[in-house]
């Protein structure tokens, strides 16, 4: 039995793709997942399962589609992955606001390192299936998305969490 963190893309954002977390916990428990926990409303799930990450993601996606009518990308990481990711913070030791440091989880490996265009204050670091970005002015004020920064990822599914959430999910998976 392994512990997995599942990150849903685009649920409960702006009133779209509503997936109440209490209902989702019930549905996942009924589907055979153990110790189902969620964190905030943006689709962060920690479960115990006796399958691998790909199978866990497919099963969670199927539960969401059957129970809530939404097809959503599900990125799954093991508890060990979350420990590795949190420990790999390329911005550690700089005293940055963890709300301004994000990890974008990818559905597969990044084909290349992403480069922040000249004239933008953000900093980015690509690490396999995650992309770290520091937004010094905050994610909401950033214009990085408008530059084509993410375009090299092609059809990879993505979902982003701030460092505070990543650390909380790591801790939940370790408990």
UniProtKB/TrEMBL annotation:
<dbReference type="Pfam" id="PF08002">
    <property type="entry name" value="DUF1697"/>
</dbReference>
<dbReference type="InterPro" id="IPR012545">
    <property type="entry name" value="DUF1697"/>
</dbReference>
<protein>
    <submittedName>
        <fullName>DUF1697 domain-containing protein</fullName>
    </submittedName>
</protein>
